[in-house]
Amino acid sequence: MVQVAVRLATQDDLESVLSLYYGFYRELRGRQGWPLRGIEEYRRDVERFLERGLVFLAFLEGRAVGFACLSEREGAYWLEELYVAPEYRGLGIGRRLVEEAEEYVRGRAPALYVMVLPQDGAAIRFWIHMGYRILNTVELAKDLEEPEGRRRGCWSSSATLSAYGGGGGRSTMMWRGSTWRRLRSSTGSAARASCT
């Protein structure tokens, strides 16, 4: 196992965190199909994170290679972002960042929460491997520029939602018209929301 040093970031780490944060958003926006703003437009976000003092920074051989950003809202702690530069993945750096964040939250709150895009299977597997369980997921979007013949909010008149409970059971629901209808219950291992 590689020797990874993790510590809370300071204002002196602004440029290192900004570079990693921009890499995080470059990947995220690419998956979402959204445009990426210029790096300087993310600077204020990073400055705010550093002011709160809840950014963990991972170093390998003196180089900043990953970060985890925590936030606290109404007594609940959220791991907002977790990112490791692509060339350093698979070395246990993400695990170390999560463990440091968990240690920080331990004693302050009973749980640490994360939110994952339902279509990000690799991230879901990582979090389950780390001991997290799926509570629920619903991902909604409203397209403000609708192609001709498309219904608002969905590509057709129906949508399905598969939600997984903490006990591993799954309920599949279908949206028809203006109501959700239960189609079936079964067992599953991932979360999904989709329009058909």
Using brief descriptors, characterize the structure shown.
196 residues; alpha+beta; Aminopeptidase; 2 domains; five-stranded mixed β-sheet; four-stranded antiparallel β-sheet; 4 helices; 9 strands; 31% strand
Q: Count of DSSP E strands?
A: 9
Q: How many distinct domains?
A: 2
Portion in beta strands: 25-35%
Radius of gyration, in angstroms, nearest whole number: 19 Å
- What overall form do the CA principal axes indicate? globular
What are the segments in which pLDDT stays under 50 over at least 5 consecutive residues? 150-196
Structural class: alpha+beta
Largest sheet properties: 5 strands, mixed
Give the second-level CATH assignment, the architecture of the largest domain: 3-Layer(aba) Sandwich
Number of helices: 4
Q: Biggest sheet, strands in spatial order? A: 1-2-3-4-5
**Amino- and carboxy-terminal Cα gap:** 44 Å
Helix content: 25-40%
CATH superfamily of the largest domain: Gcn5-related N-acetyltransferase (GNAT)
Could you name the CATH topology of the largest domain? Aminopeptidase
Order of helices and strands: EHHEEEHEHEEEE
CATH top level label of the largest domain: Alpha Beta
The overall average pLDDT, rounded, is: 79
Tell me about this structure.
With 196 residues, this protein is α+β, with helices and mostly antiparallel strands. It has 2 domains: 5-114, 3-Layer(aba) Sandwich (Aminopeptidase); 134-196, no CATH class. Helix content is 26%, strand content 31%. It has 4 helices and 9 strands; from the N terminus they run E-H-H-E-E-E-H-E-H-E-E-E-E. Strands 1-2-3-4-5 form a 5-stranded mixed β-sheet, sandwiched between helices. Strands 8-7-6-9 form a 4-stranded antiparallel β-sheet, with no helix packed on it. A hairpin with a 2-residue loop joins strand 3 (63-73) and strand 4 (76-84). The radius of gyration is 19 Å and the shape is globular. The termini are far apart. Residues 150-196 have low confidence and may be disordered.
